[in-house]
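Onboarding guide, step 5: your first structure request.
Type a short instruction followed by the sequence, for example:

Predict the 3D structure of this protein.
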Amino acid sequence: MRCELSSLILLIAAYGAPAQVGADLSDSISRPDSEPATYSSYWDPAVLNLLRGNFSWTIGGPLVWAPQDDPDSLSIRQPSTVNFRDRWHMFMVTGKPGRPHRIEHAAAAKLESLASAGRTVLDLGEADVSCPQVFYFEPAKRWFLIFQKLDPTQKPAVRPMYSTSSDITDPKSWTRPQPLVIPYPQFESLWRDFWVICDDVDAYLFYTTTDGRVYRCRSPIDTFPGKVGPPLLTLKGDFVSSAHVYRVKKLRRYLIVVEAADLHRRYIKSYINTRLDEGWDDLCTSLAKPMAGGANVRLATPMTPHWTDSLAEAELIRDGFDQTQTIDPKNFRMIFSGCTEADRAGKAPGEIPWKIGIVEQPQRVLSDPLRGPDEPGR
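The system replies with structure tokens like these:
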């Protein structure tokens, strides 16, 4: 008991008092209830595992994939998912050699039902579009879809875009795409994978570059999506893409997850901080200790098929759906793009049959913070 009390005191001293939960959405939009944080939040097993970077996951079969007889899609990837009024809404990118990428929408009462749900192509023009992020922007009382458009005739060839809707359930309701006005960084590397998160004052836009860097820009929340400020370097490493940033529920913490590469395999790193406008502290930053990768992902059952060697373009399932991108450490689940090395061998990027899957934390990891993910019971 003395050891546990000492650990609690050290945690509070190191991480500070919990922050109050942000403002609720409008009355017409429901979201999970939030409670004021208490010091006991830091002694919650799931929170301790997060602060220690103690992650362990199980994986089942793919959630969504392109059937072999699908005439329109070879791959389905880059999922962005929210739960709204007890239905899951997934925005995903479909691809096939010889045609532009496009963003499609599917909805179902259960995640595992998304594979059989009908998909609708969003009308975002004739451009090649990808990397969606969906959220409800409470200040404007509208849904936002952030994505990128590829146009090789322009410089830069990749442009950050947005579209809005008053009704996420209607895939035909999205407005004509508009560009996000962001100063283009003066370097040769390509920028991509744009992600928005807001605190009470500012909207922050994060993106990655092809030389393994993560940048952030910001604008006042009351002028977003107006002109965004200049980019500032946030992280650099062996990053590939998909720097996604979240607010951790009941903690004064933000978590960034980003895709990294180990030869042909992809895995997920993570960093943590108390603010969005400062540097990030290492959390899970190696192949031996990833946030999610070969070292800490196990098959859910002996009968689970081996369908992926990579975890790419990962998005944590959020606790709500607003611009704060809040996640609950008691319910960590991650949706990602995956494929096997055999699927990738000798193929151009557009020929790889990506699928969408999910990893979840085993209950024993959530309930026992003093045991590592691969340690035997005490």
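Each response can be followed by summary notes, for example: The chain has one domain: 2-367.
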